[in-house]
User: Fold this.
Amino acid sequence: MPNESIEDHIARSCLTVKVRMLNRIVTNLYEEGLRPLSLKFGQLNVLVVAARLGTAPPEVCDFLLLDPSPLSCNVEQMSANGWLEVVPDSDR
Assistant:
């Protein structure tokens, strides 16, 4: 559009903006569905990996593209809820 500002053009046509918006929409849908379980979407991802592997090793951060700090926080909350058992090993 000829009179369109660069900001409007980016907001309208940028694939990254659209993907991020879609990600927020999908995440919000999951969060709404998980709310009665007091479960967050990020926690669900960790639980799925732990269920498939039988454990959630530190490498789960790389697999899920998470920083260690949020993973630790989620693991603490899930452990407190009885959803995960923290088992120390040589790597902490």
Q: What stands out?
A: The chain is about 65% helix and 0% strand. The radius of gyration is 18 Å. The chain has a mean pLDDT of 84. The first helix runs from residue 6 to 13.
